[in-house]
Amino acid sequence: MSFTIAIDGPAAAGKGTISKAVAAHFGFAHLDTGLLYRAVGAKMLAGVEPLEAAQTLIAEDLENDAHLRTADVAQAASRVAVIPEVRAALLDFQRAFARRAGGAVLDGRDIGTVICPQAEAKLFVTASAEVRAERRFLELTEKGGLATREDVLRDVKERDARDMNRADAPLKPAVDAVIIDTSALSIADAIAAAITAVEAKRI
Predict the structure, then answer these.
(1) Full domain range(s) for residue 36
(2) Please, what is the average pLDDT of the chain?
(3) Separation between Cα atoms, residue 128 and residue 66, nearest integer Å
(4) CB of 94 within 8 A of CB of 36?
């Protein structure tokens, strides 16, 4: 029996952490769909055309997680994500994963609106741009990255603008999504809120 949980939201809102915890709680498989776009972005930075990168993507391309988490790859992912043909190339992979037996959690930016509009549970995880930028800044500096708070905030706002204003599958909550604002929530409280929202849909 399949049960799909769609979790959307902007960068650094906490949806990845929440998605992994929700998947573990319910014993579901988890897919960070952003990694698909990061992998395509990384291949583009290596000189491969975006559509070709999407069409030839294989599981091994998602394995070097640290390489796919850099700021350059994140920006490249946002650029390739606005290309309709790239999104179409990755659509079937995501939908097949979503309907797998035993349940699935997918997190991204258009899961509840485009990829899995029939998902049994939909969440939209968000936070203020300032809070998200601070989280990203601390994450980058902990890894030895050279960045200023001002640069990171600008990057977050630029990425939000691209994601929310793209013509194809813009970032927005599904009309029936439960909104979880993590700006003032601890990780534990945000995860608890997400689990409660999903359990309400499983009754």
Answers:
(1) 4-202
(2) 93
(3) 26
(4) yes
